[in-house]
Amino acid sequence: MKGRKLYVGNLVSSVTQEELKELFSRCGDVKQVNIIEGKGFGFVEMWTSSEAKKAVGALNGSDFKGSTN
Q: Dihedral of the CA atoms 20, 26, 28, 33 (nearest 10)?
């Protein structure tokens, strides 16, 4: 994995950018969070590709606010 920007799908409509940032911060430093309103997905950009890889490994398929991401 070379990229730092991650697609996050299946988000419930009540999720905020701050909550998503807090979740991904467990895996490293978050550079930017962008939720596409009304679409149920967003993007999280980590500062390094190794942090992004760690986040994918830790969070892919996990439950977040009642939805599997």
A: 0
- Ordered structural domains, the chain, with CATH: 5-62 (3.30.70.330)
What confidence tens digit (pLDDT) does each residue in 8-45 have? 999 999 999 999 999 999 999 999 999 999 999 999 99
Q: Which two tokens stand for residue 15?
A: 């999720």
Alpha helices in 1-69 (DSSP H): 17-25, 49-59
Whether this prediction's pTM lies above 0.70 is answered by: yes
**Cross-sheet strand order for the sheet of 30-36:** 5-8, 41-46, 30-36
- How far apart CA 43 and CA 17 sit, in angstroms, is 10
